[in-house]
Amino acid sequence: MAFGKIMVGVSFSILFLLVGYFSAGFLQTCWVFDYTVQPMDIINLVVTIFISLYVAWVITKKLTEERFEKELLISDLKDIEVEIKKILDAYEKSEPGNVILPAINQLRILIDRFKKSVQKTVSKKLDTAALDSSFTLFYRFATDYGAVDNVTDVDLPSVQNHGSNLIIEVRNLISTINKK
Asked: Which pLDDT belongs to residue 9?
């Protein structure tokens, strides 16, 4: 690590020496300086400063807003993943259906909130259809039992498989959002 820093420092030093050497020769042979200030020079300087500040402000503001929206969407997706894990843990502990069904309902609410948030942000082009289809499959297998309190009839490996697929889809969306 220290060797890399030394090499970067040496590279910059050589670069500055070369630029200084070539620019000194160029300035001596091609440039003539007039040390008087013209009104047009002042106007040019002021306009350039204002344009630079405006462009920097607009770009910074836009990047900040986009990052804020991304963080909100990613936060929603993390909440969805946490809820999926809670549901899977509840199935592994064989908790009753009256505990699991509200958690699945909460998961549906979180997914709907995420989809509505996507529609109102810059990331409108984000495809949430795969998330919906993964949730539908997960829901079908996770609620495939007769009585409310009899979760032992559920095909646990299928629930875990579709829960894992749903988590993978959530993580794919997080990755997609980060790349935009």
From this structure: 78
